[in-house]
């Protein structure tokens, strides 16, 4: 019962704020699809439109080819985990998990084994009698997940379900979530602003910006092969570096990740402004003669004010609109975005 | 509920080491405290004195109160004779009036809840400003003197053939009770996290079941409070009742008024006015445990 989700030219705005601008994309059956974007981009609205608790201005949303755009939420057979878990505070854990089954008029003798089953999977059997106010945040998250799983929906929608957890619990919950998704083999649509979550969980990630997907790809490709300058800035611990460049008769910017450059010898030069040890190497924040800030990795630290030279062995060219422009010497990899380091060597 | 989830992600709250207690707990009275308590006692005495006088009139033999030149302030002896006289007079009007008043009060309370829930839910889903404006408009009836409304309403009830029926009094009293109910319930609905309803909808509940299955149980304290208010408002209300009552069976408040102003015995009326407080007390005692909202605080993070 794993479903395919399609957005077909969906638009949605709140007053002047455009949240979805003619968006089309598909989530394949059994796929873990992450919508990634900075806070305030209206990412949750996508989930809410799929769940039916937010209307769609125009366009069509389909699940397994069936148009659900205007169905009420209770007729869509999707499960949603809200950011705050929205557990029913007047019910204990058991009744919270049983609620969706009760709403579908399952007979009580069928509800009990289903609830116990899913509680066992999530390891919350011992707390079934507790009130939801008496359990920890991690347990609340699992109860919310159990309630989503118990009704066996065709699609799971998760709205930053890990963001309310402490760092340590979040890590284990993340691994657990991925395992559960694999075991269920169900389609997950997951919203987050946290790149690490997207990287750890997603089969594919769509990065949303100003109501449009800037790029939909495997997470590694977002990092290695950003299609726009904005993605280069947004993805990664530090933004991509840019220096002015002219390629193929076009003015624009050359972008490169810190690890795509080698400090030592090279045609480029920059002055070290900050040198920070990271493990057994150093991260340098440097200033180029044109006044651009670039981050570089180096094997050793440098004193502030030192002039360093570096060579860029892999680069991406963006035109003046911030869109990627394929260079003639990377034609070999043009057909396949997501260059591996080996291919980066070839481009050198 | 022995051990509230001592799991790794919730830091257990440790009580700080206690400072050594003084060998003898000495409570020092400040003059300001003395003054405060004196004021509390004085104001309470002032407010409770009329009720005390009614108590004396109701349960002290008439020779010490009604027929005494200087009525006793402390009861020399207590009696149930006044109450019994009121009950045993042939065709005593008080018991039927008591039943009618109970009927009216429960009707007003129930109708307030039945109409109040959907109205308040609808208002709570509007923008806060619009909801506030509309709720205020509902209070217009409460702002006008009851008498200006009672007369046109009586005319309508006469035309409808409902004049003098309990439902006509109940519906009119509802005009006063409903705005308060709606006001309380709108606030209660607005205080709930919106995602609870959304969650119920996604979990497969129709809108009606989402409201009654997941939201209404959470506003129980507000429901109980507004039921009590509506109930007591009807119990006390006498202006509408006085204009709309059926002379053969007036509500208790009206009957007491009529008795005290010449139709019957003043003492019996006073005795019954004291009895009239009993159902209110019973109701409050029964319902007060539902007024607590202990399960509302948690359950939703963020």
Task: Sum this structure up briefly.
Chain A has 348 residues and is of the alpha+beta class.
Number of strands of chain B: 0
Instruction: Give the DSSP E fraction of chain B (strand runs of 2 or more residues).
Output: under 5%
Name of the CATH first level of the largest domain in chain B: Mainly Alpha
Low-pLDDT parts of chain B are 1-15, 294-302
Strand order of the biggest β-sheet of chain A? 6-7-8-3-9-10
Main sheet characteristics of chain B: none
Describe the protein in words.
The complex is a heterodimer of chains A (348) and B (302). Chain A is an alpha+beta fold. Chain A folds into 2 domains: 5-224, P-loop containing nucleotide triphosphate hydrolases (Rossmann fold); 238-347, Beta Barrel (OB fold (Dihydrolipoamide Acetyltransferase, E2P)). Helices cover 28% and strands 34% of the residues of chain A. Chain A is built from 10 helices and 18 strands. In chain A, a hairpin with a 2-residue loop joins strand 1 and strand 2 (17-27). Chain B is mostly helical and 302 residues long. Chain B folds into 2 domains: 31-79, no CATH class; 93-291, MetI-like fold, CATH 1.10.3720.10. Chain B is built from 14 helices and no strands. Classes of the chains: A alpha+beta (348), B mainly alpha (302). The A-B interface holds A 48, 51-53, 72-74, 76, 78-80, 82-90, 99-100, 103-104, 127, 130-140, 147, 151, 164-166, 168-169 and B 1, 4-5, 7-10, 193, 195-196, 198-207, 209, 213-214, 217-218, 295-302.
């Amino acid at each position: 019962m794993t479903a395919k989700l399609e957005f077909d030219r969906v638009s949605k705005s709140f007053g002047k704020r455009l949240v979805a601008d003619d968006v089309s994309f598909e989530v394949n059956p059994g796929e873990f699809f992450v919508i990634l974007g900075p806070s305030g981009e209206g990412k949750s609205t996508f989930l809410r439109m799929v769940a039916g608790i937010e209307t769609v201005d125009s366009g069509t949303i389909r699940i397994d080819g069936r148009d659900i755009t205007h169905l009420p939420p209770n007729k869509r057979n999707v499960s949603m985990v809200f950011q705050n878990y929205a557990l029913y505070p007047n019910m204990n854990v058991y009744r919270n998990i049983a609620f969706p089954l009760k709403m579908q008029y399952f007979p009580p003798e069928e509800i009990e084994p289903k609830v116990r089953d899913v509680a066992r999977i999530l390891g919350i059997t011992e707390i079934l009698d507790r009130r939801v106010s008496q359990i920890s945040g991690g347990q609340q998250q699992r109860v919310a997940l159990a309630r989503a799983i118990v009704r066996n929906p065709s699609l799971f929608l998760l709205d930053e379900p890990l963001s309310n957890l402490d760092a340590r619990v979040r890590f284990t919950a993340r691994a657990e979530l991925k395992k559960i998704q694999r075991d269920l083999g169900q389609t997950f649509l997951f919203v987050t602003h946290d790149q690490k979550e997207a990287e750890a969980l997603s089969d594919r990630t769509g990065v949303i910006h100003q109501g449009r997907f800037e790029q939909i790809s495997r997470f590694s490709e977002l990092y290695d092969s950003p299609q726009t300058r904005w993605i280069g800035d947004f993805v990664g611990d530090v933004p991509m570096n840019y220096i002015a460049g002219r390629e193929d008769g076009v003015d624009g910017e050359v972008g490169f990740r810190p690890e795509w450059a080698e400090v030592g010898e090279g045609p480029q030069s920059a002055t070290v402004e900050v040198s920070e040890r990271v493990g057994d190497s150093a991260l340098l924040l440097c200033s180029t003669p044109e006044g651009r800030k670039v981050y570089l990795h180096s094997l050793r630290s440098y004193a502030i004010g030192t002039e360093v030279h570096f060579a860029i062995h892999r680069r991406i060219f963006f035109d003046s609109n911030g869109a990627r422009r394929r260079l003639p010497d990377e034609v070999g990899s043009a057909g396949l975005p997501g260059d591996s380091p080996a291919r980066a060597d070839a481009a050198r | 509920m022995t051990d509230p989830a001592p799991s790794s992600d919730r830091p257990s709250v440790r009580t700080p080491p206690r400072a050594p207690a003084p060998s003898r707990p000495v409570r020092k009275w400040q003059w300001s405290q003395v003054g405060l308590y004196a004021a509390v006692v004085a104001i309470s005495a002032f407010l409770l004195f009329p009720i005390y006088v009614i108590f004396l009139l109701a349960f002290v033999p008439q020779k010490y109160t009604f027929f005494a030149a200087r009525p006793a302030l402390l009861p020399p002896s207590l009696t149930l004779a006044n109450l019994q006289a009121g009950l045993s007079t042939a065709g005593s009007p008080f018991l039927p009036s008591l039943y009618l008043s109970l009927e009216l009060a429960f009707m007003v309370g129930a109708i307030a809840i039945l109409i109040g829930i959907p109205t308040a839910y609808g208002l709570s889903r509007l923008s806060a400003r619009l909801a506030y404006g509309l709720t205020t408009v509902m209070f217009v009836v409460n702002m006008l003197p009851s008498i200006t409304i009672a007369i046109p309403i009586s005319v309508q009830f006469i035309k409808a053939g409902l004049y003098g029926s309990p439902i006509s009094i109940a519906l009119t009293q509802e005009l006063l009770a409903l705005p308060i109910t709606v006001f309380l319930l709108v606030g209660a609905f607005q205080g709930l996290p919106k995602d609870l309803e959304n969650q119920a909808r996604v979990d497969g509940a129709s809108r009606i079941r989402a409201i009654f299955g997941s939201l209404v149980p959470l506003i129980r304290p507000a429901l109980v409070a507004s039921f009590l208010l509506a109930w007591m408002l009807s119990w006390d209300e006498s202006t509408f009742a006085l204009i709309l009552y059926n002379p053969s069976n007036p509500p208790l408040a009206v009957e007491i008024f009529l008795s005290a102003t010449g139709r019957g015995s003043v003492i019996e009326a006073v005795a019954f006015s004291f009895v009239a407080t009993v159902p209110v007390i019973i109701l409050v005692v029964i319902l007060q445990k539902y007024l607590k909202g202990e399960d509302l605080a948690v359950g939703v993070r963020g």
